[in-house]
Design a protein that fits this description.
Substrate Binding Domain Of Dnak, Chain:A, Domain 2; 4 domains; Rossmann fold; alpha/beta
Length: about 625
């Protein structure tokens, strides 16, 4: 029986509708059901005008009722409340991404000291390049000695009391000068996050514009600090990505193998799970249990991390995590941090799936907690994989329903691999931009959100961009959506405008470049900075734009803030919780242009959002005289 029309409207992904039908048959709820049960959602919350920062409240401002309160009990107006709320979201998002970077720094330190349980330095060339940025001597020294000094220098970036953060100096000198003029050149990563929490305590900073400036400062510490640290150290430890073929979507699950899914964000865990799952003794154990082998795949940013370095398939993006379990074919869902639904615990109990949490920072109801520590990384990973292998015997064949859909993709376009594809210089790309063959470059990123038809916002916007000769750099859940759609294959150049098509065919690349996980938006920043420096201009002068068509997380708020702070016009596909404040809305969508050279636009129609980005690129091209 075909899925009903309502279910078909929830996603453009062909695996989703049949699995939602399956969930309905089994009386299992998903994120879409919980969204429906939540209606109507709180209008005050949607506008950002509710405050519970002290116990005199909670307070709320009603923009609909002229007779209603216009100030909180402390006297805070809607503008103050909205500004406090949005910068607190930035603080949380910056903390999440930067803590990811801190964990990578810790792993590098242990590896350099010979105390990690299986990690090694795989990219010595990048290690040397990073050491040079930090002024660390490399002559005649071992890679471990260099890595130790680098790890200590990077560790210091988090707690330092005075700036600057080293990687912010990759930005064009014009951009750095602007940050300094505005007082938003960040100091230590943690200091800027803590200062937001201080400023938003009752009775501290009550100037909406001043609050937003501190939010931008913390976001820069994330994008050019913590996130860049996470990306760069991951490359040193696990290898800098180069283009590799992979597959995407739930069809990568295999009926005759032990299916293990790693879900979350930090490659410190997933790299070791991969090593354990490929161990011959573990594969033999799986075969003894009746399986033909072990099949590892990833979800969300962990999926991106494994895919871009090793070609491990991506089972899906954020809204597919519950659906993966509903296939009935997953022996273990192994998670670390970020974007993991607490619904997975009760859901796994409906099947044989083991839900295994590993981080001391993240425990979940119904999960088996097997705490992961880098010092015994491979040993613990083998214990975790053993649980999955032994669980194969508990699979219920009648409950197995694996959609057949999966798509090939080409992934792993680091800045280094893009430069290699260009022949080691930016000149071919600059020539293509100057000639108009490439109109501009778009960074399209972000989450899924059940408020939007799953993957439609991502795919419709990207397809419109490439049709108009815009080269797309993609990360996170957008990258997985594009991979599933077939947009990350060189053959997808046939869908692009004539100019972009010719460039892609000449270089053998897709029109949509997979640049990694959410923290790897730092790669896009680094690339934009390199282009701007080559042209002798600021990033805000370039024909570039950003978009987050289906964003939902606090990390996305921090990302959007640091992208705009870097001078990149950014389109949001879901409405941020700021419309209750005319001042904050005006600052973010207009005044910011005069301050940092870029602003946000909100457009829920993805094709219209792409049109805004294209129009912006046309304006920048005209200003540059190209």
């Amino acid at each position: 029986m075909a899925p009903n029309e309502d279910i078909l409207e929830k996603s453009i992904d062909p695996t989703v509708a049949p699995l939602l039908e399956r969930a309905k048959e089994l009386n299992i709820e998903t994120a879409w059901d919980r969204l429906e049960a939540m209606q109507p959602q709180c209008g005050f919350g949607e506008l950002g005008v509710c405050c519970r920062n002290c116990n005199m409240g909670p307070c709320r401002i009603s923009p609909f009722d002229d007779a209603g309160p216009k100030k909180g009990i402390c006297g805070a107006t809607a503008d103050i409340i909205v500004a406090r709320n949005i910068v607190r979201m930035i603080a949380a998002g910056a903390a999440a991404h930067s803590d990811h970077g801190r964990d990578l720094a810790h792993t590098l330190l242990l590896t350099a000291e010979g105390k990690s349980g299986g990690y090694e330095i795989k990219d010595t060339e990048k290690l040397g390049a990073l050491a040079a940025e930090y002024g660390i001597d490399t002559a005649g020294r071992t890679k471990e000695a260099i890595a130790l000094d680098l790890a200590k220098a990077i560790y210091a970036e988090f707690g330092k009391q005075e700036g600057p953060l080293q990687f912010t100096r990759r930005a064009p000198k014009q951009r750095v000068a602007l940050w300094q003029k505005l007082g938003i050149d960040p100091r230590g990563v943690d200091r800027e996050i803590v200062e937001i929490m201080h400023r938003t305590h009752i009775g501290v900073d009550n100037d909406p514009v001043n609050l937003i400036l501190q939010g931008l400062k913390a976001s820069i510490a994330d994008g050019w600090g913590g996130s860049t640290i996470a990306t760069e150290i991951s490359d040193v430890l696990f290898g800098t990505p180069t283009p590799v073929r992979s597959e995407a979507n739930l069809g990568v699950l295999k009926e005759d193998q032990v299916n293990i899914i790693v879900h979350g964000h930090e490659p410190v865990l997933s790299e070791m799970i991969m090593a354990a799952a490929s161990d011959p003794a573990m594969v033999a154990r799986a075969q003894k249990a009746g399986a033909t082998g072990i099949n590892l795949s990833g979800l969300c940013c962990t999926g991106n991390e494994l895919s871009m370095r090793h070609g491990i398939p991506m089972a899906g993006n954020f809204l597919q995590q519950e659906l993966a379990v509903i296939t009935g074919a997953v022996e273990a869902m192994i998670v670390d941090v970020q974007c993991i639904m607490p619904s997975l615990g009760p859901l796994c109990e409906c099947f044989h799936t083991k839900f295994i949490s590993t981080s001391p920072k993240a425990k979940f109801p119904g999960a088996v907690h097997m705490e992961f520590h880098e010092e015994k990384a491979l040993e613990i990973a083998k214990e975790i994989v053993s649980v999955a292998v032994d669980n194969y015997a508990n699979r219920v064949p009648e409950k197995v329903f694996i959609p057949s859909d999966k798509t090939e993709c080409m992934v792993g376009f680091s800045v280094e691999s893009v430069l290699k594809a260009l022949g080691g210089t930016l000149d071919p790309l600059l020539d293509a931009i100057k000639s108009g063959a490439i109109k501009g470059i778009a960074g399209v990123v972000g989450c899924n959100n059940p408020k939007i038809k799953h993957d439609h916002g991502h795919v419709a916007l990207v397809e419109e961009l490439i049709k108009n000769n815009v080269l797309v750099a993609s990360t996170g859940c957008n990258a997985i959506a594009c991979a599933k759609r077939g947009l990350m294959l060189p053959e997808a150049a046939e869908m692009a405008g004539d100019g972009l098509k010719a460039v892609c065919q000449a270089l053998g690349i897709p029109p949509v470049l997979h640049m990694g996980s959410c923290v790897d938006i730092s790669r896009i920043l680094t690339f934009c900075a390199a282009v701007a420096n080559a042209l002798g201009v600021d990033i805000s002068d370039l024909p570039v734009a950003g978009a987050a068509p289906e964003w939902m997380s606090e990390k996305a708020v921090s990302i959007g803030a640091y992208v705009v702070s870097s001078g990149i016009f950014t389109v949001l596909g879901t409405v941020p919780q700021v419309l209750g404040s005319p001042v904050v809305t005006e600052v973010l969508t207009s005044t910011a242009n005069d301050v940092v050279g870029a602003a946000f636009a909100v457009e829920t129609d993805p094709v219209k959002g792409a049109d805004l980005m294209i129009a912006h690129m046309d304006e920048k091209r005209k200003a540059l005289g190209i």
